[in-house]
Write a structure and sequence with these properties.
Helix content is 91%, strand content 0%. It is mainly α. The protein has one domain. The longest helix has 33 residues. Pfam families: CsbD.
């Protein structure tokens, strides 16, 4: 499991906990963690594609 996936899962957990407890700050923090995870995954995918392209040349 990559960093992005871990952040996304952590964010989902925080968001759900914040929703259940009515803690808006925790819910917001969870959304930020989820977004961070998504960005990390996209950057990792782009990096992998770049490495593959370089290896072919």
């Amino acid at each position: 499991m990559g960093d992005g996936t871990a952040d996304e899962l952590k964010g989902r957990t925080k968001e759900a906990a914040g929703d259940l407890t009515g803690d808006k700050d925790l819910k917001r923090e969870g959304k930020v963690d989820r977004a961070t995870g998504t960005v990390k995954d996209k950057v990792g995918d782009a990096s992998d594609k770049l490495k593959d392209a370089i290896r072919r040349d």
